[in-house]
Specification:
This protein has 363 residues and is an alpha/beta fold. The chain contains 13 helices and eight strands. The N terminus is likely disordered.
Protein backbone atom coordinates (compact mmCIF):
# COMPACT_ATOMS: atom_id res chain seq x y z
CA UNK A 1 0.00 0.00 0.00
CA UNK A 2 1.42 3.38 -1.00
CA UNK A 3 1.73 6.32 1.38
CA UNK A 4 -0.98 8.16 -0.56
CA UNK A 5 -3.36 5.18 -0.24
CA UNK A 6 -2.61 4.98 3.47
CA UNK A 7 -3.45 8.65 3.97
CA UNK A 8 -6.69 8.30 2.00
CA UNK A 9 -7.81 5.35 4.12
CA UNK A 10 -6.93 7.19 7.31
CA UNK A 11 -8.89 10.26 6.30
CA UNK A 12 -11.89 8.12 5.39
CA UNK A 13 -12.13 6.48 8.78
CA UNK A 14 -11.41 8.99 11.54
CA UNK A 15 -10.90 12.51 10.22
CA UNK A 16 -10.45 14.27 13.57
CA UNK A 17 -7.50 12.16 14.73
CA UNK A 18 -5.99 11.90 11.26
CA UNK A 19 -6.04 15.64 10.60
CA UNK A 20 -4.25 16.14 13.92
CA UNK A 21 -1.56 13.60 13.02
CA UNK A 22 -1.11 14.92 9.48
CA UNK A 23 -0.96 18.50 10.73
CA UNK A 24 1.76 17.52 13.21
CA UNK A 25 3.68 15.78 10.43
CA UNK A 26 3.50 18.84 8.20
CA UNK A 27 4.81 21.08 11.00
CA UNK A 28 7.73 18.72 11.68
CA UNK A 29 8.65 18.56 7.99
CA UNK A 30 8.53 22.36 7.83
CA UNK A 31 10.69 22.74 10.95
CA UNK A 32 13.26 20.19 9.65
CA UNK A 33 13.23 18.57 13.10
CA UNK A 34 14.77 15.20 12.21
CA UNK A 35 14.37 13.63 15.66
CA UNK A 36 10.76 14.74 15.88
CA UNK A 37 10.06 13.56 12.34
CA UNK A 38 11.41 10.07 13.10
CA UNK A 39 9.20 9.92 16.17
CA UNK A 40 6.24 11.09 14.12
CA UNK A 41 6.80 8.38 11.51
CA UNK A 42 6.89 5.77 14.29
CA UNK A 43 3.58 7.08 15.71
CA UNK A 44 2.08 7.27 12.21
CA UNK A 45 3.00 3.63 11.54
CA UNK A 46 1.54 2.43 14.85
CA UNK A 47 -1.60 4.51 14.27
CA UNK A 48 -2.03 2.98 10.81
CA UNK A 49 -1.55 -0.59 12.09
CA UNK A 50 -4.16 -0.11 14.83
CA UNK A 51 -6.54 1.56 12.39
CA UNK A 52 -6.34 -1.16 9.75
CA UNK A 53 -6.80 -3.84 12.42
CA UNK A 54 -9.88 -2.04 13.76
CA UNK A 55 -11.24 -1.64 10.23
CA UNK A 56 -10.82 -5.34 9.52
CA UNK A 57 -12.46 -6.40 12.79
CA UNK A 58 -15.36 -4.00 12.29
CA UNK A 59 -15.84 -5.25 8.73
CA UNK A 60 -15.77 -8.87 9.89
CA UNK A 61 -18.51 -8.22 12.47
CA UNK A 62 -20.62 -6.47 9.84
CA UNK A 63 -20.32 -9.29 7.30
CA UNK A 64 -20.91 -11.91 9.98
CA UNK A 65 -24.17 -10.25 10.95
CA UNK A 66 -25.09 -9.82 7.28
CA UNK A 67 -24.64 -13.54 6.59
CA UNK A 68 -27.00 -14.41 9.44
CA UNK A 69 -29.81 -11.93 8.72
CA UNK A 70 -29.90 -11.50 4.95
CA UNK A 71 -32.15 -13.48 2.60
CA UNK A 72 -29.34 -13.98 0.10
CA UNK A 73 -31.32 -15.36 -2.88
CA UNK A 74 -30.54 -12.46 -5.24
CA UNK A 75 -26.93 -12.29 -4.03
CA UNK A 76 -26.44 -16.04 -4.32
CA UNK A 77 -27.70 -16.08 -7.92
CA UNK A 78 -25.00 -13.58 -8.85
CA UNK A 79 -22.18 -15.07 -6.80
CA UNK A 80 -22.95 -18.65 -7.82
CA UNK A 81 -22.82 -17.80 -11.51
CA UNK A 82 -19.44 -16.09 -11.28
CA UNK A 83 -18.12 -18.73 -8.86
CA UNK A 84 -19.16 -21.41 -11.36
CA UNK A 85 -17.10 -19.60 -13.97
CA UNK A 86 -14.10 -19.51 -11.63
CA UNK A 87 -14.47 -23.22 -10.83
CA UNK A 88 -14.28 -24.09 -14.53
CA UNK A 89 -11.12 -21.98 -14.82
CA UNK A 90 -9.57 -23.86 -11.88
CA UNK A 91 -10.38 -27.16 -13.60
CA UNK A 92 -8.83 -25.86 -16.83
CA UNK A 93 -5.76 -24.83 -14.85
CA UNK A 94 -5.18 -28.44 -13.82
CA UNK A 95 -7.13 -29.07 -10.61
CA UNK A 96 -8.43 -32.49 -11.68
CA UNK A 97 -5.26 -33.37 -13.58
CA UNK A 98 -3.24 -32.82 -10.41
CA UNK A 99 -5.82 -34.70 -8.37
CA UNK A 100 -5.64 -37.72 -10.66
CA UNK A 101 -1.84 -37.80 -10.73
CA UNK A 102 -1.11 -41.09 -8.99
CA UNK A 103 2.28 -39.84 -7.90
CA UNK A 104 0.98 -36.53 -6.63
CA UNK A 105 0.50 -35.47 -3.02
CA UNK A 106 -2.77 -34.18 -1.54
CA UNK A 107 -4.25 -31.32 -3.56
CA UNK A 108 -4.91 -28.43 -1.18
CA UNK A 109 -7.46 -25.74 -2.11
CA UNK A 110 -7.59 -22.51 -0.10
CA UNK A 111 -10.78 -20.45 -0.31
CA UNK A 112 -10.02 -16.94 1.01
CA UNK A 113 -12.80 -14.54 2.10
CA UNK A 114 -15.19 -17.37 1.23
CA UNK A 115 -18.45 -15.62 2.11
CA UNK A 116 -21.18 -18.25 1.87
CA UNK A 117 -18.68 -20.76 0.42
CA UNK A 118 -19.99 -20.62 -3.14
CA UNK A 119 -16.63 -21.02 -4.88
CA UNK A 120 -15.82 -24.18 -2.92
CA UNK A 121 -19.35 -25.48 -3.53
CA UNK A 122 -19.08 -24.94 -7.27
CA UNK A 123 -15.65 -26.58 -7.39
CA UNK A 124 -17.05 -29.63 -5.58
CA UNK A 125 -19.90 -29.71 -8.11
CA UNK A 126 -17.32 -29.83 -10.94
CA UNK A 127 -15.51 -32.70 -9.22
CA UNK A 128 -18.79 -34.62 -8.98
CA UNK A 129 -19.53 -33.99 -12.67
CA UNK A 130 -16.06 -35.25 -13.62
CA UNK A 131 -16.32 -38.33 -11.37
CA UNK A 132 -13.38 -37.09 -9.31
CA UNK A 133 -15.19 -36.31 -6.07
CA UNK A 134 -14.59 -39.77 -4.58
CA UNK A 135 -10.84 -39.22 -4.78
CA UNK A 136 -9.62 -38.84 -1.21
CA UNK A 137 -6.44 -36.92 -2.03
CA UNK A 138 -7.79 -33.40 -1.79
CA UNK A 139 -8.48 -30.93 1.01
CA UNK A 140 -10.61 -27.77 0.99
CA UNK A 141 -9.56 -25.08 3.46
CA UNK A 142 -12.47 -22.63 3.51
CA UNK A 143 -11.76 -19.38 5.34
CA UNK A 144 -13.17 -15.95 6.13
CA UNK A 145 -12.34 -13.26 8.69
CA UNK A 146 -16.04 -13.07 9.61
CA UNK A 147 -17.04 -15.90 11.94
CA UNK A 148 -20.66 -15.69 10.75
CA UNK A 149 -19.59 -16.22 7.15
CA UNK A 150 -17.50 -19.25 8.14
CA UNK A 151 -20.54 -20.70 9.91
CA UNK A 152 -22.73 -20.15 6.82
CA UNK A 153 -20.12 -21.62 4.48
CA UNK A 154 -19.67 -24.69 6.69
CA UNK A 155 -23.42 -25.34 6.75
CA UNK A 156 -23.69 -24.95 2.98
CA UNK A 157 -20.76 -27.28 2.33
CA UNK A 158 -21.94 -29.93 4.76
CA UNK A 159 -25.39 -29.90 3.15
CA UNK A 160 -23.81 -30.22 -0.30
CA UNK A 161 -21.64 -33.16 0.78
CA UNK A 162 -24.69 -34.90 2.23
CA UNK A 163 -26.71 -34.31 -0.94
CA UNK A 164 -23.86 -35.65 -3.11
CA UNK A 165 -23.21 -38.56 -0.71
CA UNK A 166 -19.65 -37.40 -0.08
CA UNK A 167 -17.64 -37.62 3.10
CA UNK A 168 -17.16 -34.14 4.53
CA UNK A 169 -13.77 -34.99 6.01
CA UNK A 170 -12.00 -33.05 3.24
CA UNK A 171 -13.68 -29.77 4.28
CA UNK A 172 -11.99 -27.61 6.92
CA UNK A 173 -13.74 -24.28 7.62
CA UNK A 174 -12.09 -21.76 9.92
CA UNK A 175 -11.64 -18.06 10.64
CA UNK A 176 -8.60 -16.55 8.94
CA UNK A 177 -7.46 -13.03 8.14
CA UNK A 178 -6.78 -13.06 4.41
CA UNK A 179 -4.15 -10.36 4.84
CA UNK A 180 -2.20 -12.61 7.20
CA UNK A 181 -2.92 -16.24 6.23
CA UNK A 182 -2.14 -18.83 8.87
CA UNK A 183 -1.74 -21.85 6.58
CA UNK A 184 1.77 -23.22 6.09
CA UNK A 185 3.95 -21.64 3.39
CA UNK A 186 4.20 -23.60 0.11
CA UNK A 187 1.31 -25.87 1.12
CA UNK A 188 -1.54 -24.79 -1.17
CA UNK A 189 -2.03 -26.13 -4.70
CA UNK A 190 -4.87 -23.80 -5.74
CA UNK A 191 -6.19 -20.59 -4.16
CA UNK A 192 -9.42 -18.71 -4.82
CA UNK A 193 -10.87 -15.44 -3.57
CA UNK A 194 -14.12 -14.25 -5.09
CA UNK A 195 -15.05 -10.61 -4.50
CA UNK A 196 -13.12 -10.34 -1.26
CA UNK A 197 -9.85 -8.56 -1.90
CA UNK A 198 -11.47 -5.14 -2.26
CA UNK A 199 -12.27 -5.31 1.46
CA UNK A 200 -8.68 -6.07 2.52
CA UNK A 201 -7.35 -3.00 4.36
CA UNK A 202 -3.79 -4.09 3.52
CA UNK A 203 -4.27 -5.46 -0.01
CA UNK A 204 -0.78 -4.82 -1.36
CA UNK A 205 0.72 -6.50 1.71
CA UNK A 206 -1.84 -9.33 1.60
CA UNK A 207 -1.07 -10.44 -1.96
CA UNK A 208 2.57 -11.46 -1.29
CA UNK A 209 1.39 -13.22 1.88
CA UNK A 210 -1.18 -15.20 -0.10
CA UNK A 211 1.45 -15.98 -2.73
CA UNK A 212 3.67 -17.45 -0.02
CA UNK A 213 1.02 -20.08 0.79
CA UNK A 214 1.13 -21.48 -2.75
CA UNK A 215 3.37 -24.33 -3.81
CA UNK A 216 5.73 -23.52 -6.70
CA UNK A 217 3.54 -23.60 -9.81
CA UNK A 218 0.38 -23.18 -7.67
CA UNK A 219 -2.53 -21.28 -9.24
CA UNK A 220 -4.60 -18.43 -7.76
CA UNK A 221 -7.83 -16.85 -9.02
CA UNK A 222 -9.21 -13.52 -7.78
CA UNK A 223 -12.72 -12.30 -8.63
CA UNK A 224 -13.41 -8.55 -8.64
CA UNK A 225 -16.16 -6.32 -9.98
CA UNK A 226 -15.54 -4.33 -13.13
CA UNK A 227 -19.07 -2.89 -13.22
CA UNK A 228 -21.94 -3.48 -10.80
CA UNK A 229 -25.43 -2.08 -11.28
CA UNK A 230 -26.08 -2.65 -7.57
CA UNK A 231 -24.02 0.46 -6.85
CA UNK A 232 -25.96 2.55 -9.38
CA UNK A 233 -29.29 1.25 -8.02
CA UNK A 234 -28.21 2.15 -4.48
CA UNK A 235 -27.28 5.67 -5.58
CA UNK A 236 -30.58 6.11 -7.47
CA UNK A 237 -32.61 4.86 -4.49
CA UNK A 238 -30.85 7.40 -2.25
CA UNK A 239 -31.84 10.17 -4.69
CA UNK A 240 -35.41 8.84 -4.70
CA UNK A 241 -35.44 9.13 -0.90
CA UNK A 242 -33.74 12.55 -1.01
CA UNK A 243 -30.99 11.18 1.24
CA UNK A 244 -27.64 12.95 1.23
CA UNK A 245 -25.18 10.10 0.85
CA UNK A 246 -22.41 11.63 -1.24
CA UNK A 247 -19.55 10.45 0.97
CA UNK A 248 -20.99 6.95 1.42
CA UNK A 249 -21.53 6.58 -2.34
CA UNK A 250 -17.99 7.77 -3.01
CA UNK A 251 -16.64 5.21 -0.53
CA UNK A 252 -18.80 2.52 -2.14
CA UNK A 253 -17.42 3.33 -5.58
CA UNK A 254 -13.88 3.32 -4.19
CA UNK A 255 -14.41 -0.18 -2.79
CA UNK A 256 -15.83 -1.47 -6.07
CA UNK A 257 -13.08 0.14 -8.15
CA UNK A 258 -10.36 -1.95 -6.48
CA UNK A 259 -9.46 -4.63 -8.99
CA UNK A 260 -11.98 -3.26 -11.48
CA UNK A 261 -9.27 -2.39 -13.95
CA UNK A 262 -7.50 -5.18 -15.83
CA UNK A 263 -4.25 -3.21 -15.79
CA UNK A 264 -4.58 -2.55 -12.05
CA UNK A 265 -4.87 -6.25 -11.22
CA UNK A 266 -2.02 -7.23 -13.52
CA UNK A 267 0.18 -4.59 -11.90
CA UNK A 268 -0.78 -5.51 -8.32
CA UNK A 269 -0.32 -9.25 -8.81
CA UNK A 270 2.92 -8.89 -10.76
CA UNK A 271 4.30 -6.55 -8.11
CA UNK A 272 3.39 -9.13 -5.44
CA UNK A 273 5.46 -11.76 -7.26
CA UNK A 274 2.84 -13.70 -9.21
CA UNK A 275 3.70 -14.75 -12.76
CA UNK A 276 1.71 -15.54 -15.91
CA UNK A 277 -0.96 -13.05 -14.83
CA UNK A 278 -3.99 -12.71 -17.07
CA UNK A 279 -7.47 -11.26 -16.58
CA UNK A 280 -10.70 -12.61 -18.08
CA UNK A 281 -14.04 -10.82 -18.12
CA UNK A 282 -17.62 -12.06 -17.83
CA UNK A 283 -20.85 -10.08 -18.14
CA UNK A 284 -24.34 -11.20 -17.19
CA UNK A 285 -27.83 -9.68 -16.95
CA UNK A 286 -29.75 -10.79 -13.87
CA UNK A 287 -33.53 -10.52 -13.62
CA UNK A 288 -34.24 -9.98 -9.93
CA UNK A 289 -37.73 -10.52 -8.51
CA UNK A 290 -38.73 -7.30 -6.74
CA UNK A 291 -41.78 -8.86 -5.15
CA UNK A 292 -39.34 -10.68 -2.86
CA UNK A 293 -37.40 -8.63 -0.28
CA UNK A 294 -34.19 -10.43 -1.28
CA UNK A 295 -32.48 -7.66 -3.28
CA UNK A 296 -33.77 -4.96 -0.93
CA UNK A 297 -32.25 -6.76 2.07
CA UNK A 298 -29.04 -7.43 0.15
CA UNK A 299 -28.66 -3.68 -0.38
CA UNK A 300 -29.85 -2.09 2.87
CA UNK A 301 -28.26 -4.69 5.19
CA UNK A 302 -25.00 -4.87 3.26
CA UNK A 303 -22.13 -3.45 5.40
CA UNK A 304 -20.95 -1.34 2.44
CA UNK A 305 -24.14 -0.48 0.54
CA UNK A 306 -26.28 -0.09 3.66
CA UNK A 307 -24.20 2.81 4.99
CA UNK A 308 -25.77 4.95 2.28
CA UNK A 309 -29.11 4.76 4.10
CA UNK A 310 -27.90 5.90 7.51
CA UNK A 311 -29.74 9.17 6.95
CA UNK A 312 -33.10 7.43 6.69
CA UNK A 313 -35.03 7.45 9.96
CA UNK A 314 -38.22 5.56 9.10
CA UNK A 315 -37.05 2.02 9.86
CA UNK A 316 -36.60 -0.96 7.56
CA UNK A 317 -40.31 -1.74 7.12
CA UNK A 318 -41.05 1.78 5.90
CA UNK A 319 -37.92 1.70 3.77
CA UNK A 320 -39.17 -1.49 2.07
CA UNK A 321 -42.39 0.29 1.07
CA UNK A 322 -40.31 3.12 -0.40
CA UNK A 323 -38.21 0.53 -2.23
CA UNK A 324 -41.32 -0.98 -3.82
CA UNK A 325 -42.44 2.48 -4.94
CA UNK A 326 -38.96 3.12 -6.34
CA UNK A 327 -39.01 -0.14 -8.34
CA UNK A 328 -42.33 0.85 -9.96
CA UNK A 329 -41.05 4.29 -10.94
CA UNK A 330 -39.43 3.71 -14.35
CA UNK A 331 -38.20 7.30 -14.52
CA UNK A 332 -36.29 7.02 -11.24
CA UNK A 333 -35.44 3.32 -11.68
CA UNK A 334 -34.41 2.60 -15.31
CA UNK A 335 -33.61 -1.02 -14.39
CA UNK A 336 -37.34 -1.66 -13.78
CA UNK A 337 -39.09 -4.24 -15.97
CA UNK A 338 -42.57 -5.82 -15.97
CA UNK A 339 -44.30 -2.95 -14.10
CA UNK A 340 -41.69 -2.88 -11.36
CA UNK A 341 -41.82 -6.57 -10.46
CA UNK A 342 -38.40 -7.21 -12.01
CA UNK A 343 -35.13 -5.31 -11.85
CA UNK A 344 -32.66 -6.17 -14.59
CA UNK A 345 -29.13 -5.66 -13.33
CA UNK A 346 -25.96 -5.81 -15.39
CA UNK A 347 -22.95 -7.19 -13.56
CA UNK A 348 -19.47 -7.42 -15.08
CA UNK A 349 -16.76 -9.34 -13.24
CA UNK A 350 -13.03 -9.71 -13.76
CA UNK A 351 -11.27 -12.96 -12.95
CA UNK A 352 -7.53 -12.62 -12.47
CA UNK A 353 -5.59 -15.84 -12.93
CA UNK A 354 -1.97 -16.09 -11.83
CA UNK A 355 0.51 -18.63 -10.53
CA UNK A 356 3.56 -18.91 -8.35
CA UNK A 357 6.80 -19.27 -10.19
CA UNK A 358 8.16 -22.82 -10.42
CA UNK A 359 11.67 -23.38 -9.17
CA UNK A 360 13.00 -24.39 -12.57
CA UNK A 361 11.36 -21.33 -14.20
CA UNK A 362 13.79 -19.02 -12.43
CA UNK A 363 16.83 -21.22 -12.95
Amino acid sequence: MTQVESVIILLCWEPSVDHLILSLGSQLVGSKNLTGLIGFLFIFEKHFIVRTKNMAESSAKGWGSYSATNDSKSVSDMLLLFSRWASHVLIDEGFVAKLNDEHGATTEFLDVACGWGYLSMELIERLVELNSAKNDRYKFRVTDYAEGMVHSARNNLLQLCEAKQLSNSFVDCFVMDGCHPTVAPNSISFLGCMFGIMFFPELDAALPNLLSTLQPGGVAVFGTWKEADTAAVTEAFCRFLSIEATEAIAELRRFLSIGGSRDDMVERLSKAGFVDVRVEEKEHLFDIDCTSPSLFQAIVRNPVLGVCFNGYTGGEEALLLEWQRFCRDAAQCPWSRSDGTILQLRMVANLSIARKQRVHDSA
